[in-house]
Amino acid sequence: MMNRFNQILRYMYKPMVSFLDADHRTGLKLFNRELARHKFTVLATFAANIVSAIFEGSSIGILAIAVTTLTTQDLGVSFDFAPPVIRTPLIEWSQGLTTSTVFLALILFAVIAQILRSIFYYVSRRISIRLERRITQGLQEIITSKIMTMSYKTISQYPSGFIESLIRQAGRMAGLISALNTLLLGAVLFTVYCFVMYKTSPSLTGVSFLLIVILSVGLTIVVRRLALYGKKMVVADIDTSRLTVEYLQLPRLLRVFNATKYAEKRMNMARNEALMYKEKANLTKIAVDPVVDIITMISAAAFLIAGFFLAGDQSPIVVANLLVFLLIFYRMIPQIKLLNQSRFVLAHVLPSLKVVAQFYSRETDIRWLNRGETCTDINQPIHFNNVTFRYPETQRTALSNLTFSISPYKTTAIVGSSGSGKSTLLSLLLRLYSPTDGQISLGESDVSSISVGSWLDCIGTVDQDTYLIDSTVSENISFATDRHSQDDIIEAAKMARAHQFIMGLPKQYDTIIGERGHLISGGEKQRLSLARAFLRSPSLLVLDEPTSSLDAHIESEILSMLNEQQHLLTIFIIAHRLSTIRNADQIIVMDNGKIVELGTFEALQSKQGAFQKMWAEQYRRNVVDTDINFS
User: What pTM did the predictor assign?
Assistant: First the structure.
């Protein structure tokens, strides 16, 4: 049944989408897949539309019969308008009734038919509105899921503003519901009116069709222009979102560099460009109705004048029939507008369809997060074997032939100057990227055979840049997990030496700390980040400059705590202050993407090499703090 439903949709789209490219068709497939999930709602909408259209046509047809009855006083002629299936019952019903009685009864039937038409039209619109909301929700959830399941390597290539705009563009695709609804309703009504018009006057119907063809050709030009404006509007809208998100995330930077006016100007320029194309599209659309109305009025006047002069003595009857024809013609013109309105909607939606489809097709395998074996504990050595890495965007070699091991329940420290490759190495360990060459293994197993999701569940990470959300202290510590109690959260905060300052906040653990934690200090942010890592009870703790924002006293407390945890978990730490790694089990010194030294603190000092130079330089700058050991 699902395949049959999709075939029906393709048949309905065919007259509108024959000119679309591969991206548009991919977007339509995505839309159809979501629409098929609500097939019964769609069918109910279409059924209500068809019934509404039938009653609409019936009311006009009955009015035509009523007017003919009044002008000809001949029921046999009047009922020629009726379809054969109901003509005989009508003749039988009218037997013994006066013409006036039949006329009044027909007017009553026409009113009842119009009332029923309005009821079913309301039902159709109500169902359609709900369906559009569900389709919008479904499409946005699909794109959100796509975003969240993409690998870091892929998603990091997109600006955050583009991603935010993309979700909105996915919602706009639901406008196709309106286009389909309008297309179906207009097509059915158009067919009904054509039948009634043909029964009234075949010759005038032929002339009317010629007029309709001319109108359609003209409107095709309008649709193409609207499609062009729609494409430019989507590009400008994405640019607006990108700039707005980027700049609004940098309130401190913009003010420190006195760049608020610069940011304001760029955001306004992008937004104004989008509004300009929207205005052009609207101005083009509003010109359509007046032009169609003028052509319709001129055509109606020409029909009446021609009929009057050609009818001779029969002009009163002919003109009366012409008025019936024109009534139907006037009722049909809005349906022509409806049919073209579906083309307008499509022209507006197509650019969004293309952008969403291009993004959705970017990565075919979106199951990378949970694909592979499950890792429950990282309690074996992690081996880096001749690992080389080049960033895909630049092909610059960031790491070259790294070979070392991270022993379980030991502390491995990485040091080196800025740009030496420390953060890139950390990204490989967290599997945000995969090595270009070489292998990373856990024991004897290549980590690529382990699901990324379960691997990360075993790791607690404290990044150099502390990321906090605009929520409570508790929700920041328990970020992305709901399996921990409030007591667990408090215990993690105590381990991170954060409990004391939290208790001093206005609402303690229920205090809102603002976007990116701007209501608390840098050191307090870092301690919350540590608490977040400890709450996960990791078997591998990854620390990137974990004490860079801490004073000496708090740093001493945290390093003492790490000393307590050292034999319970594996610690991998990137450090700038060399004093914090003095008794690490292994120190790796990096430079220009390569390992230049490896050993313990004492062994590296005795070599008088790169590490010793770094130590001496920090000592000269009075950066070395108190000697705090892990042991």
Answer: 0.68
